[in-house]
Design goal:
Blueprint: E1 2-8, H1 24-39, E2 46-49, H2 53-66, E3 76-78, H3 87-97, H4 109-124, H5 137-152, E4 158-163, H6 165-176, H7 180-189, E5 195-201, E6 204-212
Parallel strand pairs: 1-4, 2-3, 2-4
Antiparallel strand pairs: 1-5, 5-6
Length: 228
């Protein structure tokens, strides 16, 4: 039985020119998560992560939080199958078809999330022009599923996986068997530097917990619970 921790990256730089980088808070969230693992004596004998900057920086923060113990994270296996989908391309493809849905400049972030949810629903229904997309919904699902199968076959006791909300929500679809619309809803619920824990063996997967942030759920860190 393999114990797998699916960790979403720390807070990224939402609204900045380069989203693919942790904010100062995001780096702190990752460190606190590593420190939580250290205090709980949770040791990993295998690490996987996507090849995005925010994945690497999150892994580095976790490693730094663990480092004061006798345990050191093993070298990461980098797999682009764990990358987030290109949400900017999906939104642009949706607006190409529905230009009247454009969010006015200066609108609150909640308006952008409403747009993204509509765009993702259209993407999942194959209703967007492929010429404006990096990948189809099916291709996204297939690459995430391939990583999950690889994790299932590992000869490891405990595995750390650093990825993104969309990819984790898609992996949970494979585990729990929910529909595409639920992938989208789950994606928007997953908190920064949270972990979802599951057990795997040759027969399949069992989800133990979802979207946990015990390292942030304390009085002086509640401000650090974020979703983007």
């Amino acid at each position: 039985m393999t114990d797998i921790y699916l960790v979403r990256h720390g807070q990224a730089s939402f609204g900045k020119a380069n989203y693919d980088k942790l904010s100062e808070l995001g780096a702190q969230q990752a460190y606190w998560l590593g420190d939580y693992f250290r205090h709980r004596d949770i040791e990993f004998d295998s690490v996987f992560m996507g090849d995005m900057v925010r994945h690497r920086e999150t892994q580095e923060g976790i490693a730094a939080g663990i480092a004061s113990s006798n345990h050191v994270l093993p070298q990461s296996n980098v797999d682009s199958g764990l990358n987030e989908f290109n949400f900017q391309a999906v939104a642009k493809a949706y607006l190409h078809r529905y230009p009247e849905q454009q969010v006015p400049e200066g609108a609150p972030s909640s308006e952008y999330y409403r747009l993204l949810k509509k765009a993702m629903l259209a993407w999942s229904q194959d209703a967007l022009d492929h010429a404006h997309l990096d990948e189809t919904w099916r291709a996204f699902e297939d690459r995430v599923s391939a990583v999950l199968k690889q994790l299932q076959q590992l000869d490891a006791k405990r595995v750390l996986v650093v990825s993104s909300g969309g990819a984790i929500a898609m992996m949970l679809k494979q585990i729990l068997g929910y529909d595409d619309a639920t992938v989208i809803n789950m994606n928007l619920q997953i908190r920064n530097a949270s972990f979802s824990q599951c057990y795997a063996n040759a027969k399949g997967f069992h989800l133990n917990n979802f979207n946990s942030v015990p390292h942030l759920d304390v009085t002086d860190r509640l401000h650090a619970i974020t979703y983007s």
